[in-house]
Design brief:
mainly alpha, Amino acid/polyamine transporter I, two-stranded antiparallel ribbon, 19 helices, 4 strands, globular
Length: about 500
């Protein structure tokens, strides 16, 4: 019997601003500030990146329609996992939930390790003290480990103190993130250093031994757009964390679609703004990047605002993005694990709520313990795990869109347009999964060999854990008398 688990409930503490902050904070992380130099400008240029991010945002908005519909139908913690359970049964729900755990939980330690990179970018070598070692080509220092672990513990404690306190902190961080990026945009527009002649090559370039070659022609344009569009699930992962906290909303579920769309649009603005600022300010940015220029967006901010003000503004933006990502994914991960525990897919103690603070304390502690391993592995090794984040997110997209379509058909609900959008979202989800698992051209988004290995191990672990849970339940049922006999 699962009555004790089903009685576990949250208090409704989250307002629309809190929920927007969770989604926006999860969407924008360290990558939005470092990738203009590492991926966006080289692969897609200013125009290719802008088009790809805009198309990606439209796709995410299409998918968000299914999420908003399913939240109204099943407003329970667990989101996609609950949608899959209600519409397809136990095994599909477990598959969806298992991969979503990898998607959300891997982002918590990854964000924490970015703190070392930010501090090193602002104050080179400040954390390079104590012992050090190398994993997957990445040097890891004691100073970086201490900072990352300290922040992970701090934000776990904030989550443990209650949803409302966590929501307030998340909102402050998300607003800081938005405001500081807006300051950078205004400063760029006003700066005499801004030069539209710097914007090319607008489609990115091909790196050659002797320098670079601008992408031209139809194939160059398409490769530029697809190279960034292919990582849309990674770029926008976060808006779909909203349903994980559905039981804690103290507002109408009709507002969910509006909150999701606003979060996606804010994320789109940050990605395009950061990329464009970098190109407009740095003269001959391809040469700067190909010659190994460190963190070009930071260099651009320092150019237009001055070294110290630029470092403070960009540092505040990046730290807000990282910390809001840690907070948001803590909340999403713990609610998903709680839901799977309450529904009997994970050990029962995960499905309990602390009576004083109304939070899933054991789920949060589990997230903390797992996340604390991350700083010791370093970012390069963690990236192999995070590759599964995009897959897990895409699987969640697919289950949600299919569940929405099936529910509409079963209940004879939803317009023709709604049904078309759900099917379109399902197709997009399938395409995203394929381009990540199957090497296609030179998109560069498919798994590395270690990522394929870890993906396979995660599948085997999931299968093993599922059957272990089923065996444990069977043994428990054999020992317990039937419910009818208990009543007698």
């Amino acid at each position: 019997m699962n009555k004790p688990q089903e009685q576990q409930q949250f208090k409704k503490k989250l307002n629309p601003m809190d929920v927007w902050a969770i989604a926006f904070g999860c969407i924008i992380g360290w990558g939005a500030f470092i990738n203009p130099g590492e991926k966006f400008l080289p692969n897609s240029g200013v125009l290719g990146t802008a088009i790809a991010i805009a198309i990606g945002a439209i796709i995410m908005i299409v998918i968000s329609v299914s999420y908003a519909y399913m939240i109204r139908k099943h407003p329970k913690a667990g989101g996609e996992f609950i949608f899959a359970k209600q519409c397809f049964g136990r095994i599909p729900a477990y598959i969806c939930g298992w991969f979503l755990i990898a998607a959300y939980l891997s982002n918590v330690p990854l964000n924490s390790t970015a703190l070392g990179l930010v501090i090193d970018g602002l104050a080179p070598g400040a954390l390079h003290f104590g012992f050090s070692y190398e994993i997957a080509g990445n040097m890891i220092y004691l100073g970086e480990i201490l900072v990352a672990c300290g922040v992970l513990i701090l934000f776990a404690v904030i989550n443990m103190l209650g949803t409302k306190k966590a929501g307030i902190v998340q909102t402050i961080l998300a607003v800081l993130l938005a405001v500081t990026v807006l300051i950078l945009v205004v400063a760029t527009i006003a700066s005499p250093l801004t030069n539209w002649d710097n914007i090319g090559p607008v489609w990115g370039y091909v790196k050659l031994p002797e320098g670079y070659e601008p992408k031209v022609g139809f194939s160059g344009v398409m490769s530029a757009i697809l190279a960034t569009l292919a990582i849309a699930p990674w770029a926008f992962v976060g808006f779909e964390t909203i349903p994980q906290a559905a039981e804690e909303f103290k507002f109408s579920f009709k507002k969910v679609i509006f909150i999701m769309v606003i979060a996606i649009l804010f994320g789109t603005f940050v990605y395009i703004a950061n990329n464009t600022i970098t190109a407009l300010v740095i003269e001959n940015w391809p040469e700067y990047i190909t010659n190994g220029g460190r963190w070009p967006l930071l260099f651009a901010a320092q150019q237009i605002l001055g070294k110290i003000p630029g470092s403070i503004i960009l540092g505040t933006a990046v730290l807000s993005a990282i910390l809001s990502g840690i907070m948001g994914f803590y909340m999403a991960s713990s609610r998903l694990i709680f839901s799977m525990g309450r529904e009997g897919y994970l050990p029962k103690f995960f499905g309990t709520v602390d009576k004083k603070h109304s939070v899933p304390q054991y789920a949060i502690l589990f997230c903390l313990v797992i996340s604390l391993v991350g700083p010791f592995l370093g970012r390069n090794a963690l990236s192999w795990f995070v590759d599964m984040a995009s897959i897990g997110t895409s699987i969640g997209f697919g289950f949600t869109c299919l569940a929405a379509y099936m529910t509409m058909r079963k209940e004879k609900d939803g317009s023709l347009l709604m049904k078309i959008l759900t099917i379109s979202g399902l197709v997009f989800a399938g395409v995203f999964i394929v381009i990540q698992l199957v090497p296609i051209g030179n998109l560069g988004v498919n798994f590395s060999v270690p990522s394929y290995i870890i993906f396979g191990i995660w599948i085997l672990l999931g299968v093993g854990f599922f059957f272990w849970q089923e065996f444990a339940k069977k043994k428990a049922n054999e020992k317990s008398p039937p419910e009818a006999e208990e009543k007698e």
